[in-house]
Design goal:
Strand content: under 5%
Structural class: mainly alpha
Largest sheet: none
Number of strands: 0
Number of helices: 10
């Protein structure tokens, strides 16, 4: 309940600052529309925005799922075989040095203008934070847990499955929280580069037609969608990994 109250207060404060900036600087609507006009546009084009949101939601969900799966598999492979990690880890770092905007057009060429290229863009943004955080967790198994495994004479695969992986789950949870924020961004970037559906496509078209109120309405929905996805993931991870050390703000 406190969380929703904080979110409401922050949102109300943001809207107040928004309206104040328009009033003080006398900004025309084609530069910055009023909050009321954005809400009115959201109401008038609700069905259109809802249909485009469904597309972005599917792209984000699939990108998050496959990106998490591939990142976790890569981390497990690197942690289980040091000779592989020596070669794979530098490739992961180099892949992040290439801006997503530079790769997204290639993904559109390779996979077409449909959902596949947008899902691939989301995977590209999600893969590294999941793989790197999970791999760090697998390398940093607490000494007490290791001694316990040795005392129990655990076999290598049992030690890996019952000790190293549970000990690494809090780090994986941190990576998933970052990935959850990045997933909608990846989907929207893919839609900006080349698409015929989605919130990114809607924002790009609205901007080209100077429908700034519609663009802000789509952006507002994207913000609410991203925040909701993050909080759902955070609550789910707190329930699934109860032994992680989390400090709730008072």
């Amino acid at each position: 309940m406190k969380l929703f109250f904080r979110v409401f207060c922050l949102l109300a404060g943001f809207i107040a600052l928004w309206q104040t900036a328009i009033y003080l600087f006398d900004l025309p609507s084609y530069i910055l529309p009023t909050p009321w006009r954005v809400l009115s546009t959201l109401h008038d084009h609700f069905r259109l925005i809802l249909n485009e949101t469904k597309i972005t939601l599917i792209e984000t969900g699939l990108g998050l799922m496959f990106g998490t799966l591939l990142g976790a598999i890569a981390a497990l492979i690197m942690a289980s075989c040091r000779s592989i990690s020596v070669w794979v880890l530098p490739l992961l770092v180099v892949s992040q040095a290439i801006p997503t905007f530079a790769v997204a057009p290639l993904l559109v060429i390779w996979f077409g203008y449909g959902m596949t290229s947008k899902i691939a863009t989301a995977i590209l943004m999600i893969f590294f934070p999941v793989a790197s955080s999970f791999f760090d967790g697998l390398k940093e198994t607490p000494l007490g847990w290791q001694e316990l495994g040795k005392t129990m004479n655990a076999k290598r695969w049992r030690f890996f499955w019952y000790i190293r992986i549970p000990a690494a789950l809090p780090k994986l949870a941190s990576g998933l929280r970052i990935a959850t924020v990045a997933a909608p961004i990846g989907a929207v970037i893919g839609e900006w580069v080349g698409a015929s559906q989605g919130l990114g496509f809607l924002m790009l078209n609205a901007n080209a037609r100077m429908q700034i109120d519609l663009m802000f309405a789509a952006l507002f929905v994207l913000m609410i969608f991203s925040l909701t996805l993050y909080f759902l993931m955070d609550k789910s991870l707190n329930w699934l990994v109860p032994w992680q050390k989390t400090q709730e703000p008072s």
